[in-house]
Amino acid sequence: MDGILLPENQWESRVINSSKFSLILFVEKNAEICISAKNIISHLLMSSSFLDLEFYTIDVFESPKISLQYRISIVPTLICIKNKQKIYEKICEPDLESLEKLFELIRQENL
């Protein structure tokens, strides 16, 4: 699971109207800290089995409407959305402990 770069025109269909958990990492595409955050999340997801989770990245410059809607002012910022509701937000590079807590929450919801 590599964090598909999601264009703004697919936001509604892929995230908002999805019944799955959507993990969204807001990034500045070539920023080193954003690349590192994406790699950490991708690695963790590969070692976990999630049947009901999609991982996307949103470039704040290519998708300004979405970034503004969620008040993203610092990258990277990670949010999790399910059933049109934001259920998690982590500003700055996500750490392993906070990601593991989020993944445990998702695991419990999937049971």
What are its keywords?
5 strands; 4 helices; five-stranded mixed sheet; alpha/beta; 111 residues; Glutaredoxin
Strand-helix topology:
Blueprint: E1 4-5, H1 11-16, E2 21-27, H2 32-46, E3 53-59, H3 64-69, E4 77-82, E5 85-91, H4 96-110
Parallel strand pairs: 1-3, 2-3
Antiparallel strand pairs: 2-4, 4-5
Q: Can you identify the CATH superfamily?
A: Glutaredoxin
Number of extended strands: 5
Strand content: 25-35%
Structure class? alpha/beta
**What is the typical, i.e. mean, pLDDT?**
87
Distance between the termini: 21 Å
Widest beta sheet: strand line-up: 1-3-2-4-5
Structural notes for this entry:
The protein has four helices and five strands, in the order βαβαβαββα. With 111 residues, it is of the alpha/beta class. It has a single domain, classed as Glutaredoxin (3-Layer(aba) Sandwich). A five-stranded mixed β-sheet has the order 1-3-2-4-5.
